[in-house]
Design brief:
- The complex is a heterodimer.
- Chain A is about 40% helix and about 15% strand.
- Chain A contains 20 helices and 19 strands.
- In chain A, strand 6 and strand 7 form a beta hairpin.
- Chain A is flat.
- Chain A starts with a strand and ends with a helix.
- By secondary structure, chain B is of the alpha/beta class.
- Helices cover about 45% and strands about 15% of the residues of chain B.
- In chain B, the strands form 4 sheets. Chain B has a 5-stranded parallel beta sheet, with helices on both faces.
- Classes of the chains: A alpha/beta, B alpha/beta.
- At the A-B interface, helix 6, helix 8, helix 9, helix 12 and strand 12 of A face helix 4 and helix 8 of B.
Chain lengths: ~600, ~350
């Protein structure tokens, strides 16, 4: 691994990844919107700028591109009301929507990990149908464009909304590529459109099966991924001048669409006794690639495709599906939302109109205002016979009482985070009762739009057993089979609790911490035993959590009420509740009450 | 717009296809919910079915999809005010209306026609999406993300068949008979139980685990995209077969007869499963009837009931959070216990 002067490691395959990025540029230049979409994972910087310049370097008339961000209003996508033109002409006039203007070119989504589901849905359905129904006449307006979603997510739970990400074939990660590895020189000559020919390139059955295996192994349940692999591979074949999809194109397609795919080591009993086709029966390409463009790819890449192909022949896919289903739940992505919740939200889903501005500086909703004013026009024109009346000259007589403002609401829910001491002999029962309490709580959570999460600490570390959710389906999957017993790493538990609560707060949810512990830990953060150190660390962390003022409840599970637990509760600024025997019904009732109080 | 993917060309997904056909035959079933992962062909199936249905008659320029012989009262196109004759009859495809996620209530139900009001000061009604969906399908993707009050409104209209608009000085009602189809991924958030219960039938779709089936799906999609007309023409015969099946089923439906024994068995099943309310039984009855009609029979049998039981009941069972088995498994167990399956 190369390192620069500050000790930051650069990937030694940065050059290779940049070459792949240039390949994507080539794809876009030749095939345009047919490529579908690109999810670009890269934070702002000169590398990203360089790549974006190359991709969008076209003459803007032939390839128009439009930029949207999470704050862009939905109505601007399809064509917002043109207020001035409407008022001037006394007829409804609409602007040309962003989607329409992007037809034939590209739609760039900045900060794609923060867009609301409504915008993701609007763009997705436009991509599916190849257009949209315009607001005024309801006529179908064609809009086919390449979507470039710029993903700047830093946290594990921030991601581009899955609905949209599923429809973007190419996933390109430019993180960690050094500036000096980026080479601006590309084949500028290939600008002519490739046309529809790529659809007629053949994909052999075996290659197709390998794509299916690759998609499954990457953890993506959607069949779209397979389609993407197939399409991109064919386009790459056209560039390489091949008549069928050969191993190079297929391999590159897998790397561009999925990335590195690891074939899991499956135990022997899962490998079926198939007739294994020996490696040299896989589609061998007779044409040697002397085409200059393909020499960009260094030849010493491990032949992942070969590995995948063999895996596809041997492994029973149903077993993979089952074993991956367990890991899939842990990889759930939330749409990222930042900012604390306010009642006067400036963004989010619109929930109606009010006549008073919801926050200072709010702009009125023109359409709703006109709607409110319209029924009064006749009366007002009769009323103002007075020649001094300024309103008489107005075509559309609007009064102050007509003004309407949009109110927004972005989800602010309470997330109850259970922090459970899973050590010691009574742990299994306690965990079981907590699990029961959570499942009972979920019934209430549907109604209130709240969420529940569970983390447990035992042995030498803490672990998130259930990510914040209100879905019973997910809960059952995540909580089947809970471990228990051993030593108590209280400090780790507190640390993880704080991280999770912070994340929830940043998403705009209100966390409610529920601790189930007896207040005594005997394992320090680094895993060593030692009550004194453990107690000190726990006290420090508790004070930190208390300082953040998260609403919290500490349930003392010790038999006679330990002073340690009370001390911990004070440090955490948590409500102290002794409950020697954890009972699912009682626990869920307690927590539910407190969640309701915060609603 | 180019022709959609043919219904009979959809690989697998038999339960979902049957559910949609049943909903098209028996509108009283009330709404279909399709739960499943992304990319499982949910919206493809709905569009394909609508294209499969025979074209319907309406008048040119009518925005309410009125039937020519029985137009809606508020439709000014079909009821010309000055006594002149109504416009020509035309044929149109069964509409499939997509409900966009950010829809506002006035866009869905209809509202004051601003243009007319601004220009001539007259009060006129501009129909919304519900009017355009009349006699067709209303498809809502990601229904669990839709506002609760909108889902409420839609379920109300779907149940009563009439859209009543009272706002901005208007009081309009027009027929809104459509099949409501909602799809979603339960892992991203469930629907509230009260809303779930008002949907007639619910099906689960999963991506096929069989690798051959997956390859076949991609292959057909490829062929379709290469040459749409040719592909559609290739499957036309089978689609026509389904169409005649559907039309025959619609004729048979009013003539179906239930035996008392079968009704008792239906009731016993619902009691055994502890389904809340009577909607379970009613749905089972209607679904079994639709199934029998689709198969060309006038008498529903126990087999029909067994087939439709999961889709009619899986979303109505009170969830016992401490029980491990999913709803479909519980239904099968109950059927076995009673000796029906």
């Amino acid at each position: 691994m190369l390192e620069n002067a500050d000790g930051v490691a650069f990937s030694d395959d940065g050059k290779r990844r940049w070459q792949e990025a240039l390949k994507v540029v080539q794809l876009v230049r030749i095939f345009g919107p047919d490529v579908g979409g690109i999810r670009l994972k890269c934070r702002a910087g000169s590398v990203r700028n360089r790549w974006m310049d190359l991709v969008l370097a076209e003459d803007s008339k032939s390839r128009p591109w439009q930029k949207v961000n999470p704050q862009t209003g939905l109505d601007r996508l399809k064509g917002a009301l043109d207020a001035t033109a409407t008022l001037r002409a006394s007829k409804l006039r609409y602007e040309r929507g962003i989607l329409e203007k992007a037809h034939g070119g590209a739609l760039v989504i900045a900060m794609a990990e923060r867009i609301e589901p409504t915008m993701a849905a609007a763009i997705s359905s436009c991509m599916d149908a190849g257009g949209f129904h315009s607001t005024d006449a309801g006529t179908f307006c064609p809009a086919e464009f390449l979507v470039i979603a710029i993903d700047e997510s830093a946290e594990e739970n921030e991601a581009v909304p899955p609905m949209l990400a599923d429809r973007l074939p190419i996933h390109l990660d430019l993180e960690g590529i050094a500036w000096r590895e980026t080479d601006p020189d590309t084949d500028a000559a290939a600008i002519n459109r490739g046309g529809e020919d790529w659809r007629y390139i053949d994909v052999s059955e075996q290659v197709q099966r390998t794509f299916v295996a690759a998609a499954l192994l990457s953890g993506s349940p959607s069949l779209r991924t397979v389609k993407h692999l197939s399409d991109i591979a064919r386009m790459l074949a056209v560039i390489a001048g091949e008549r069928t999809v050969d191993r190079n194109s297929a391999d590159l397609a897998v790397r561009l669409c999925i990335g590195e795919v690891s074939v899991p080591e499956l135990p022997d009993d899962l490998q079926q006794d198939h007739e294994q086709p020996p490696p040299n029966e896989l589609p061998e390409n007779e044409h040697t690639n002397t085409d200059g463009e393909n020499s960009d790819i260094p030849p010493d890449i491990p032949d992942e495709f070969e590995v995948l192909a063999q895996a596809a022949a041997r492994i029973d896919l149903i077993q993979i599906e089952r074993s991956l289903a367990a890991t899939r739940t842990r990889r759930r992505m939330n749409t990222g939302k930042a900012g604390t919740k306010t009642n006067q939200s400036k963004r989010g889903r619109p929930i109606g109109h009010t006549s008073m501005p919801p926050f200072s500086g709010a702009r009125p909703d023109v359409l709703a205002t006109i709607r409110a004013a319209v029924p009064w026009q006749k009366i007002r024109s009769i009323g103002s016979e007075n020649p001094d009346d300024a309103l008489r000259s107005q075509k559309l007589k609007i009064r102050k009482s007509d003004f309407r403002y949009k109110r927004y609401k972005h989800k602010s829910a309470t997330t109850a985070i259970f922090v459970v001491d899973a050590s010691g002999s009574t742990a299994v029962e306690r965990l079981g009762e907590t699990k029961g309490a959570i499942e009972l709580l979920l019934a209430d959570c549907y109604v209130r739009r709240d969420q529940v999460a569970l983390l447990a600490f035992r042995g030498d570390h803490a672990e998130i057993l259930l990510q914040p959710t209100r879905s019973l389906v997910r809960t059952k999957r995540s909580l089947s089979g809970l471990p228990g017993g051993g030593t108590t790493p209280l400090a780790s538990g507190l640390q993880l609790a704080q991280t999770l609560a912070d994340a929830e707060r940043r998403k705009g949810n209100q966390p409610l911490l529920v601790f189930l512990t007896d207040g005594s830990g005997n394992i320090a953060l680094d895993g060593t035993t030692g009550r004194a150190v453990a107690a000190e660390e726990a006290a420090q962390l508790a004070a930190r959590i208390g300082g953040e003022r998260f609403p919290a409840v500490l349930i003392d599970i010790s038999r006679f009420g330990k002073p340690a637990a009370e001390k911990l509760a004070t440090a955490l600024r948590a409500e102290y509740l002794p409950l020697p025997r954890t009972d699912a019904g009682e626990l869920s009732r307690l927590v539910s009450q407190r969640m309701e109080q915060r609603a | 717009m180019s022709p959609p993917f043919p219904f009979s060309a959809i690989v697998g997904q038999d339960e979902m296809k049957q559910a949609l056909l049943m909903a098209a035959v028996e509108p009283a079933l009330g709404g279909v919910l399709v739960f499943g992962d992304r990319g499982t062909g949910k919206s493809t199936a709905v569009r394909a079915l609508a294209a499969l249905l025979p074209p319907m008659e309406t008048r040119e320029g009518c925005q309410f999809n009125c039937m020519p012989n029985a137009p809606a009262d508020c439709c000014s196109v079909c009821n010309p005010p000055d006594g002149s004759s109504a416009p020509e009859k035309v044929e149109m495809q069964t509409p499939v209306i997509d409900l966009p996620l950010g829809s506002t209530e006035d866009r869905v139900c209809g509202a004051l026609d601003l243009e007319k009001a601004l220009v001539s000061g007259e009060k006129a009604f501009e129909p919304g999406l519900l009017a355009r969906a009349h006699r067709g399908f209303l498809y809502i993707d990601e229904i669990n993300l839709l506002e609760d009050h909108l889902i409420d409104l839609l379920l109300d209209v779907a149940a009563s068949g009439v859209n009543l608009v009272e706002r901005e000085g208007l009081s309009i009602r027009h027929p809104a008979d459509f099949v409501l189809v909602g799809s979603g991924n339960p892992e991203e958030g469930d629907l509230r139980p009260q809303l779930l219960d008002r949907f007639g039938i619910a099906v689960d779709v999963t991506t096929p685990v069989d690798i051959d089936e997956r390859v076949e799906v991609i292959k057909r999609r490829d062929e379709f995209e290469r040459n749409r007309k040719k592909f559609v023409a290739g499957w036309e015969k089978r689609d026509n077969g389904i169409q005649s099946q559907l039309l025959l089923a619609r004729k048979l439906l009013p003539k179906t007869v239930f035996s008392k024994e079968l009704l008792k068995k239906i009731a016993r099943l619902c009691v055994e499963l502890g389904a809340d309310g009577l909607r379970g039984e009613l749905t089972l009855m209607r679904a079994a009837r639709a199934r029998a009609a689709l198969q060309g029979r006038k008498k529903p049998t126990l087999d029909d009931v067994v087939y439709v039981a999961p889709m009619s009941l899986r979303h109505r069972l009170r969830r016992d959070p401490l029980e491990e088995a999913g709803s479909a498994a519980r239904i099968h167990k109950a059927l076995e216990r009673l000796g029906y399956a």
